[in-house]
Structures are given as C-alpha cells and as structure tokens.
Amino acid sequence: MRLPTFLGLIILTATLSACGQNRSTSTTSNPNLVRGNTEERELSDPNRSTIWDVFGPNSSEQVTQVNRYLWSASLDVLNFLPIQEVDPFTGVIITGYGTPPGGGRSYRATVHISDPALEARSLSVALQTSGGSPVSAATTRAVEDAILSRARQLRIADNKF
C-alpha cells in the first residue's frame, strides 16, 4: 500500500514540474519577449504552450492588421500577374511571373503591407525579372505609386474619406 502511494506522488510531482518547464523566473526585462494584452510570448517559439494556456484567455481569434484598401489595390494593380501565395494576416502577396500590358519583360512581385494605415510607409513592393536583371528603383516606385493611388480611389469610393 505504501509503494503505490509513493509512486503516485512521484508521478504527480513529475507532471507538475513539467508544466512549469521553460518559465522565466528572472524579473529583469528580456528583449526577446513580446508583451501582449494579457500574456508574454517568446519570439523564438511563439507556438509554445503549457497546461496553463488552457485556463487563459482565448487567443485563437486572429486580428488582421492590414489596410484593406492597400490590399485590394495591390490585387487590382497587379492583376496581370498570377497569384502564387497570399496571407492577409501578415499582409504578404507573392505573385508568379507575368508580362504587364504593353510590356515585353516579365516580372514577379512580392508585396508586403505592414501597417493598417493608408500611408506609403505601410507598403513595400519588391520586383524581380525572369532574366535575373535588376529592376530599376523608378519602376518599383511607379508600381508603389499606382497601388497607393488605387487605394485612395477605393477609399474615396467607399465614402470613408
């Protein structure tokens, strides 16, 4: 009777100690931590979870931090390129190679919308050619300007100006 009780206590202790594994006991500020509304997550492993996460707030709902006008305008302006990958939660659009109307060189684009504001700093466009030759900064800037102009048009048409 004494042996099963002793083994049960060992198993219970091991289980509880495993739940607290990788918890920081330091009170100093760690630059690798991102503070959320109610929790701290390590940047190196944002998907890490413990038994205590079951009792915490529900964080399964993701909030989109992408400007919808920039998102729609990017898809409108680059509609001649085949879409390979889109992620509205991170604001990334990756296209395949395509030739613009009236152009002779094929391009591919990667668009990153990093902020919910309708501003130029929220938009980043990277262009590549199929031949590997560099794309001029003026061409990239022209595409960014076209996307920003289209986003402003969409916002005005939506009566949110």
From TrEMBL:
Protein name: DUF3576 domain-containing protein
InterPro entries for this protein: DUF3576
Lineage: Bacteria, Pseudomonadati, Pseudomonadota, Alphaproteobacteria, Rhodobacterales
Listed Polar residues bias regions: 21-32
Signal peptide boundaries: 1-20
Keywords: Signal
PROSITE patterns: PROKAR_LIPOPROTEIN
Pfam families found in the cross-reference section: DUF3576
Stretches for region Disordered: 21-42
Species of origin: Ruegeria halocynthiae
